[in-house]
Structures are given as structure tokens and as C-alpha cells.
Give the backbone structure.
Amino acid sequence: MPIRLHTPENHRFLRKTDYVVESLRASILAGYIEPGTSLTEKQIKEVLPVSSSPIREALNQLEAEGLLVRSPHVGTKVAELFAEDVRELYAIQTLLECAAVQMCGARLTKSDLDEAERLNDEMKATLSALSYDVHAIRLLNYRFHMIVCGMNVHAWLARLIAAIRVRLPKKKTIWLIPPEARAGIRYHRKIVEALRRGDPHAASDMMRRHLEEAQRTYFSQERTKGARDANELHHK
């Protein structure tokens, strides 16, 4: 069965394996590939212009990160997220991304910040459409965060952040609620402004507020859903 994959720009990657890893990560993050979905080498090869070897290496790497699970009889599947994992993942995300902005902020180049600002402007323009593409917003948001968290400064730290970010829930996020999404874009702008004036501490603080607000949105929706489900069960 054909699958939809994000196809990154080839020139950004030194190795084909990294190209495949980024494609699969971004595709899972955007919601193109749902948790529990089966993945085969053949499916990936039909979309990405790579040979079998980098695909196998990429699948091994993503399995080691916990993003994919494999079993002899079922094959390779996208790992599913359980409710008890969510709070821990959000806490780790906040620690890593706030620390990354503070560590890497002074070493981000003008080109990095210009690209982060361009991505945020593109998010704002996408959001202004009457019917906007949530998958596109998620991908732009992912790329924004990876840049300001120093993907071009500390590669290993960026990999850890990417591994956490891809595991976070895709539903009930701020990007599905236009007012909350616009607030997220404003936080992004303030993060870039702080980095431009050479204040990574302020940028880190703004990142913390941004992520905590996103987490409150998720858990608020979870509580609302729980109350609604309990009410429906009571009236059955």
C-alpha cells in the first residue's frame, strides 16, 4: 500500500541515511504516517530516491530511538504513544529545548535566524488561509524549533530533541486551534527577536513559556474529553 512521505531537500544531508531518517521523522511528526502503521523497505523506496542500504540503516536508527518497533511476524511499525508517556515526554522536551536555545543561541548565525523567521512567517501565512494544512504547519514548526535549538551547532542534542518531538501527540495540539496557533507564532517571533539581540537567556525563557502553554492546551483538551466520556457513560 503506498505511503505519503515528506521529502527533504537532498543538499541538506551528507549521508543518504540521514536523508531517510529525516524524511520518516518529519512524516510521522506531520501525521502522514500514524502510530501503528506498518512500514516496508519497498514502500519507502517507491517514494524516496535511495537504495536499500540507507533505508535499512535509517530503520535501525529509528528503532534504536524507539520511534519504530519491529517483530519477526509483524514487521516494522511506527511506535504507539501511551497516555502515561505523554507527561514525561513533555517534561523532557521542555528541559532539552530550553537548554538548547540557551546553549546554542550565541552561535546561531544570521542565516539561521533569517531562516527561522522565514519559517515562522510562512506558518503565519498558512494559518491565515480559511482552510489551512495542519500537516504543513507541523512541518514548518518542527523545522523552526530544530533551527533555534541549534541543529547546525550541536548535532547530537538536535537528534535527541527530534526524537522526543516526533513522539509527542499529533492530536489536540495548538495547531488545531487557530487562536492558540497564532499565540504560538507570536512566541516564535519573540524567541527570534531575543536571539537577534544576543539574549539567549530571554529566548530560553520564552521557549519555556511557549512549550508550557502548548502542554496546557493538550491536557485541557484531555480533561474535557475525559469529562465528556464520563458523562456519556453515565447517561447510557
